[in-house]
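Worked example
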Amino acid sequence: MTHQQLDSEKIIETVQTLHRRMQERFPQAGLSGVCEKLLEISRQARKRSEAIARPIPWVRILSGTVIAAVLITLGWTIKSAKPPDEPLSMAEIVQVMEAGINDVVLIGATVFFLVTLETRIKRGRALKAIHELRSVAHIIDMHQLTKDPERVLRQGKDTQSSPKRSMTQFELSRYLDYCSEMLSLTGKVAALYVQEFEDSVAVAAVNDVETLTTGLARKIWQKLMVLHTVGAAPAAEEEKSG
């Protein structure tokens, strides 16, 4: 594996390590289950991406056979055609040209459909897998949604519907950091699908996932900055007073 490609094994190992870290620190957290799902998807992504990169023999054989049959039929039709004994009128020439153009367009569309069939099948598989990662990214964001650093730093009165906040400042910092790592790894898993399959539609879908995960991670880092900046102020005051 060169330094110009993502190593699926390394990605799986990183997700697996992150999952262990989360289980050890937050064994009861639902986020650990999401990370376990991401680990399962990353393992599947290795096999799926390899399958997408490989040729599909039956599609190529079918497409080649049909294209050859169409071209042979067209050639036989042209060869069998006999010119009329009398010259054609202008209206008849127009009709013949119109029919010929329609046939050429139809044959061209058929050939194009068959030539791109394999790519479209692979694209469908890739997009389905990438959509799964997009859903995972939103689930991760839902888990960090109520993790507000202000409530840890400034205790206030909870309402009946307020979410439970039992984490310390350090625990919340680690929890948010785990979310950020999971989002980053989600984008890396998505990139595996287009590493050997350079389809513009699939690449655009992966870019959308990476844009999504980057945007969600940016919100998490804003929370971490608040947590670290505001949380460091009392410690600095205690050092001065000491």
Notes: Residues 235-242 have pLDDT under 50 and may be disordered. DSSP finds eight helices and no strands in the chain. The chain has two domains: 8-55+127-153+165-232, 58-117.
